[in-house]
């Protein structure tokens, strides 16, 4: 069974993604910030990481950079609502430059996200 790590400080987002991905047949782990997410990934790398960009402690760009530095073949999807700016494009563009394979603005299009998960992690 393919494994996915969700890193997002919003419990509702983590919960929604967990339910969607488990229903699609994936095993899911989650973390409320990049610091904990990286610890989980180092302990047991997953087939795919889905990370928010704006989070406390260690934000998503740092998380992506560290994972890609230490695990060059890691597959990562970045998600963001843009925070106070309400325009996630800048953050998502940066995430792509630092190694995210796909990026999605919140609110998420669940079908498009699931298609990207299938493509990157496998079914």
From TrEMBL:
<dbReference type="GO" id="GO:0000160">
    <property type="term" value="P:phosphorelay signal transduction system"/>
</dbReference>
<feature type="modified residue" description="4-aspartylphosphate">
    <location>
        <position position="52"/>
    </location>
</feature>
<feature type="domain" description="Response regulatory">
    <location>
        <begin position="3"/>
        <end position="121"/>
    </location>
</feature>
<protein>
    <submittedName>
        <fullName>Two component system response regulator</fullName>
    </submittedName>
</protein>
<dbReference type="Pfam" id="PF00072">
    <property type="entry name" value="Response_reg"/>
</dbReference>
<keyword id="KW-0597">Phosphoprotein</keyword>
<dbReference type="InterPro" id="IPR011006">
    <property type="entry name" value="CheY-like_superfamily"/>
</dbReference>
<dbReference type="InterPro" id="IPR050595">
    <property type="entry name" value="Bact_response_regulator"/>
</dbReference>
<dbReference type="InterPro" id="IPR001789">
    <property type="entry name" value="Sig_transdc_resp-reg_receiver"/>
</dbReference>
